[in-house]
Amino acid sequence: MATLESIRSRSGWRDLAEGQGQHLILGVFLMAGAAWFLQGEAGARRFLGMDSVTWAWISIGLAVAHQAMVAVVFRLQLHTGFMTRLFGARDLRVWGRMFFPLLIARPVTVLIVGVLDRGSLGGPGWASLGLGLVLLVPAAYTMYCVKRYFSFERALGGDHFHERYRRMPIVRQGAFGWSQNAMYTFGFMGLWAIALICGSWQALIVAAFQHAYIWVHMYTVEGPDMRWLYGDEARPD
Prior knowledge:
By secondary structure, this protein is an all-alpha fold. It has eleven helices and no strands.
């Protein structure tokens, strides 16, 4: 397996943009779809002076900003060691402080949309509540497995920063035994769970956007990065 230094010595500035044309196009299509399904009048409920549709777009905008930031930092770090050059041994810690506030904003803003738009989904309330609680189980279990088996540092993209993360074995325990990419497959079910528990159509659209958009990130950012980092051993976890 090539070292990070050898990867950086043979990559160029053009490699920073690998897959980002597709990333942009797919992101625009997903936002257009969200705009279509979010049409209609918002209810009377407001939070901080803003209605549910406004909060839906805030949630979508923060998700886009989050993934754009990750794409830029991952590529700069992988191909130039940008964060390490700036922050030295504190590189991953600084990155975590940039990353986690936007990650936490995802479920928080979906919850705000859901509460403001609660009951709009229609149908039996017990059905959406029950399904939401069911989806909450694999989402919560996946987060537990990330902490116990995978580590948050590795989930932050530690393999872009330090060799020791690249040389760790593939995790197969817990939710990672169900899917190598358990975080995206099951973790994002938590957003669907919030929307369903609130019985909110608008929150459901935001959850669907975020879940679809994280897979765009997977195939246009992380996928190419994994091929650089692991070659034929490339893996999506």
